[in-house]
Amino acid sequence: MTSDPSETAHLIGGVGCEHWNSRLDVVAIRFHCCGRTYPCLHCHDEASDHPVTPWPTDTSDDLAVDAVMCRCCGTWLSVGEYLSLYAGSAQHPERPACPHCAAPFNPGCARHTHLYFQV
Ligand SMILES: [Zn+2]
Ligand SMILES: [Zn+2]
Ligand SMILES: [Zn+2]
């Protein structure tokens, strides 16, 4: 289950947005509230007239939903895959990266996880 490709094609290969502009800001989030995909929460809010609701994370079905896209390679990560990158496991201590193309993700995103996911 992914977004309409025509909506996300322009995000692939890009970095950041007008709110976040580090080279590490290479993910886009598909939002639980409306199913649309934006580089960040603020991009969502400027384009939408409703509040963001975080993705549920209670069940294995919840964790299997594709909700994060790596903009370097266009691969979708499930909720569970994305959260595990930031779980501080032995393999990725503080160095989250795309499991498919190895593009480094912004470690600072861990501070905002609760805005996007019920953690
Ligand atoms: Zn929304
Ligand atoms: Zn933004
Ligand atoms: Zn990637």
TrEMBL record:
<keyword id="KW-0863">Zinc-finger</keyword>
<dbReference type="InterPro" id="IPR037274">
    <property type="entry name" value="Znf_CHY_sf"/>
</dbReference>
<keyword id="KW-0862">Zinc</keyword>
<protein>
    <recommendedName>
        <fullName>CHY-type domain-containing protein</fullName>
    </recommendedName>
</protein>
<dbReference type="InterPro" id="IPR008913">
    <property type="entry name" value="Znf_CHY"/>
</dbReference>
<feature type="domain" description="CHY-type">
    <location>
        <begin position="10"/>
        <end position="89"/>
    </location>
</feature>
<dbReference type="InterPro" id="IPR016694">
    <property type="entry name" value="UCP017292"/>
</dbReference>
<dbReference type="Pfam" id="PF05495">
    <property type="entry name" value="zf-CHY"/>
</dbReference>
<dbReference type="GO" id="GO:0008270">
    <property type="term" value="F:zinc ion binding"/>
</dbReference>
<keyword id="KW-0479">Metal-binding</keyword>
